[in-house]
Design a protein that fits this description.
about 475 residues, alpha/beta, Aspartate Aminotransferase, domain 1, binds pyridoxal-5'-phosphate
């Protein structure tokens, strides 16, 4: 690393070279970027799990005209590393338990850099046969893990939202694109599912939210009643969406019963396994997710519980031809991309034409660490969540609101000896949430469980230890005790 960033600034003579950069300067820049990232990772645990700034402050700092002449590149990236990138939630912090955390492995990060540097456009076989075959390899791994037949196929997507969108399009085409369409999902389904359904043109009132039971799993009887009522009223039900790890609670819908039902009723079953799906690589997870393999399509997010950098979603469909029927649209300008045989063009399987090489990070990190390490890392999340539940159960201050499911546990502060004047439980728990946010290193988030305010912790980061979980729960107890004695 150069001691003085200015000293090599002369290498970046952008005026002379237009947009080119000399090889030595390219390496210096890449090396410095790598150093900055590794330094960040090494000091992460000592810092808070969140940083942020109000809009106007950032406008004042960042809104400036682009310079007419370039600045030294090292200076530019140092500024990004100092003033911009850290002003964000540290989603990979060992004490970030909010929403769905994500902790990428270093080989995965480097692979994304390589994918950007090689700059392959993975739209068709002609433009990217090597990377396309790699995507097929990674999809084959996923296919085997979820237990799909060889007829299955899919593609890597930006995330779970894009996977659901593509799945709904395939479902609609498979149903013959009828009018007056309805789709069904539990009241715990992610807003991403609702948005996907809306984007494909399903009217908001035709997206049926089915009641869930006390453990937040879709109620089969309510689903049956909703579909029957719609058919009687002249609607055309096409698809049902199941949760394999609902975002709020980690709840898993009754996948076997839903698969049986959808088969009899001729409905497409899509499983949203964006959060929970990779639990399937463990024995316990496979048991919990039994029935997922019977779905017509499955959405998975490797950037959640499979330790990849964003963006690494995936859609698998049981019958690969259903995707190609829905998405393959010939275009004169692309006629030369018909090259070779017996291969997919990934742009025929989903929304995107230009695509990056998302498979590389998955392939590089799995080959680097091996499946045993991935399995252990996924298991660790489930074990820590179960241990957190035990701790909450034994606490005089905390109450379990929903037992650990996959890596999520829901709880709240609710001591028996609370001062009746301390405010409502919701107010008290909001205070606890805010104090953890402002005063502790950890970050947790909240949800509504059938309308009741609940704190929740999602524990899926491979760097999180029991001490990280315990000390965060202790902070909740401490802030909770203070809030109820006020
Ligand atoms: C259960 C579930 N489904 C879908 C999504 C949407 O996935 P993405 O953010 O990758 O588009 C999320 C995101 O957190 C999720 O938790």
């Amino acid at each position: 690393m150069p001691s003085d960033t200015e000293s090599i600034a002369g290498d970046f003579d952008t005026e002379q070279n237009g947009l080119r950069m000399a090889p030595g300067a390219m390496l210096d820049l890449a090396r410095r970027a790598a150093e900055l990232i590794v330094e960040r990772i090494e000091s992460l645990a000592e810092e808070g799990a969140w940083d942020g700034e109000f809009r106007q402050e950032l406008v004042d700092q960042l809104l400036e005209d682009p310079p007419e002449s370039g600045l030294p590149a090292l200076q530019v990236i140092e500024r990004a590393a100092r003033d911009i990138l850290p002003v964000a939630a540290r989603i990979d912090h060992p004490r970030f338990f909010g929403f769905i955390p994500s902790s990428p492995t270093w080989p995965g990060v480097v692979a994304d850099f390589m994918a950007a540097g090689y700059h392959v456009n993975q739209c068709t076989w002609l433009t990217s046969s090597g990377p396309s075959q790699l995507e097929l390899v990674v999809l084959e791994w996923f296919r085997r893990w979820v237990g799909y037949p060889e007829s299955a196929g899919g593609l890597l997507t930006s995330g779970g939202s894009a996977a659901s969108l593509d799945a709904f399009v395939a479902a609609r085409e498979a149903a013959g694109h009828p009018s007056r369409v309805t789709v069904y999902m539990g009241d715990q389904s992610h807003s991403a599912q609702v948005r996907a359904a809306r984007i494909i043109g399903i009217r908001p009132e035709c997206i049926r939210r089915v009641a869930s039971d006390r453990r937040f799993r879709l109620e089969m009887e309510s689903l049956r009643r909703a579909v029957d009522a719609d058919r009687a009223a002249g609607f055309n039900p096409i698809a049902v969406c199941a949760n394999a790890g609902a975002g709020s609670t980690g709840a898993i819908d009754p996948l076997v019963e839903m698969a049986d039902y959808c088969k009899v009723e001729g409905l497409w079953l899509h499983v949203d396994a964006a959060y929970g799906g990779f639990a399937v690589i463990t024995e316990r997870g496979r048991e919990l997710l039994r029935g997922m393999e019977r779905a017509d399509s499955i959405g998975l997010d490797a950037h959640k519980w499979f330790f990849q950098p964003y963006e690494a979603g995936c859609l698998l469909v049981k019958d690969a031809t259903t995707l190609e029927t829905a998405f393959r649209i010939p275009h004169d300008m692309l006629q030369d991309t018909i090259w070779g045989a017996n291969h997919p063009n990934f742009s025929d399987r989903g929304l995107q034409l230009s695509r990056s090489v998302r498979a590389l990070k998955i392939w590089v990190s799995v080959r680097t660490f091996g499946m045993d390490a991935f399995r252990q890392a996924v298991s660790q999340g489930m074990e820590l969540a179960a241990r957190a539940e035990e701790y909450i159960e034994a606490s005089p201050v905390l109450e379990v609101m929903n037992p650990a499911s996959l890596g999520i546990v829901c709880f709240r502060v609710n001591p028996a000896d609370a001062n009746p004047d301390a405010g409502s439980l919701q107010e008290i728990n909001r205070t606890v949430l805010a104090r953890i946010f402002w005063e502790d290193r950890a970050f947790i988030s909240s949800t509504l469980l059938h309308g009741t305010f609940s704190l929740r912790m999602c524990i899926v980061n491979y760097t999180t230890t029991w001490d990280d979980v315990r000390e965060t729960l202790e902070a909740a107890e401490r802030f909770g005790s203070e809030a109820v004695s006020d």
